[in-house]
Amino acid sequence: MSVDEARGLVYCPTGSASADFYGGDRIGKNLFANSLICLDARTGKRVWHFQFVHHDLWDRDLPAPPNLLTIRRNGQEIPAVSQTTKSGHVFVFNRVTGEPLFPIEERPYPSSDLAGESAWPTQPLPTKPAPFARQVFSFDIINDLSPDTLPDLQNQFVRIKPHIPFTPPSEQGTIIFPGYDGGGEWGGQAVDPNGILYVNSNEMPWILTMINAAEGDTNGERVYLQMCATCHGIDRSGTQIQGSPVPPVTLAALKEKQLDRQALSEKIQKGAGIMPPFGFLSSNDFNAVLNFLLKNGGGPTSENQNSNNEIVYVHTGYNRWKDAHGYPAVKPPWGTLNAINLNTGDYVWKTTLGEYPELIERGIPPTGTENYGGPIITAGGVLFIGASLDEQFRAFDMKTGKELFRYKLPAGAYSTPATYSVDGRQFIVTASGGGKMGTKNGDAYIAFALPH
């Protein structure tokens, strides 16, 4: 949240409605999900609100706190609030009245082909600024840096639904671009006193595929598909989440780990690692999923038969779309840093953020990487940011976007830096924690300052 202390207003960005990708049980716009809500800080009374995604089916929760700034137009100063989105848009409002400072249009988008689903027919988009991430994944921007992987990417492309923004999830497969991690992400943005917004962005496509969990042959399979398959895989062979492996739960894998019924029951009840506890399951569902896992799926039994005919769609996991070498399926840039003048809605500059050393050695210009954690700016006109998967900490000229400095960290800096001063000397500090997308872990704080 962000607070306007002088006016006593608090600005609250909200998350998406549950479940993330199927809304057959929540027909309608789903207010106040995916909204920026302005509240009177003293009373909690709602002053105004705006919903950025109607009936969200794409996990487009608002990723970061909004920024408070002053917009200058025609000699006037307007108190404003800006909100970035995972889809790569910047919305700007009068922070007192909620009036949009650039026109917002409701545009039509496709309907859903999932049983029971009713996608909202329109979505709001600002006419300015232009998106800070590409919006359409088309055949011509499939990654062709590696000729050996291009045919496979092209074959995948023609098998899934043609990409249009806000195409609803499907059993055929739907491209999410920008992906679940933006566009804009949780690291937030920086804004200077002149109304220039600085925001880093991801350009990674993901593929979302839905299945009807109610179609399982047994109640145990239904519970597995609904509760477990997103992480462990439809075929129980394991997946990856944020670069961390999720183990397989095939019968052979469970036997190899010597997980008998009692041990498996305890893990499911209490959770393990990143897996949450599932002790809330009814005894019937709990025993049914145990039977399903330990009997290699088995066939229907009288006590395990799925008699539940409700529609329960689940997805097959959070799947980045990459080529066989691990690079995004889309042509670069894969990560950018952007400066946007919110007085006019025009871009000041855009540059890539991050690089892959092995591609640089091949003579390929910096591609950018996925990035997590936002920028910080200083009165001296310097922007500092870590964020990139190459584990570099960088400084940029705020006016031009020129890189001024870089430092190889012991591990990636996937949070927003902070600044402070001691005895008149200014420092910048970043957490070097690593751990994203398979990069190594770290436990250091690294501080920087100019020489005395």
In the sheet with the most strands, the strands line up as: 1-2-3-4
Segments where pLDDT lies below 50 for 5+ residues? 297-308
Share of residues in strands:
25-35%
What is the class of the largest domain in the CATH system?
Mainly Beta
Defining key terms:
single chain; 452 residues; alpha+beta; Methanol Dehydrogenase, Chain A; Cytochrome Bc1 Complex, Chain D, domain 2; four-stranded antiparallel sheet; 30% strand
Task: Describe the model.
With 452 residues, the chain is an alpha+beta fold. It folds into two domains: 2-208 and 322-374, 8 Propeller (Methanol Dehydrogenase, Chain A); 210-316, Cytochrome Bc1 Complex, Chain D, domain 2. It is 12% helix and 30% strand. It has a four-stranded antiparallel beta sheet, with no helix packed on it. Strands 11-12-19-20 form a four-stranded antiparallel beta sheet, with no helix packed on it. A hairpin with a 2-residue loop joins strand 25 (418-422) and strand 26 (425-434). The radius of gyration is 24 Å and the shape is globular. Residues 297-308 have low confidence and may be disordered.
Concise description?
The protein is 12% helix and 30% strand. It has helices at 150-159, 219-227, 229-232, 251-256, 261-270, 283-294, 357-361, and strands at 2-4, 9-13, 35-40, 46-51, 67-73, 76-84, 90-94, 104-108, 122-126, 174-176, 190-191, 196-202, 206-208, 210-212, 239-241, 244-246, 313-315, 319-320, 335-341, 346-352, 376-377, 382-385, 392-397, 403-408, 418-422, 425-434, 441-448. Residues 297-308 have low confidence and may be disordered.
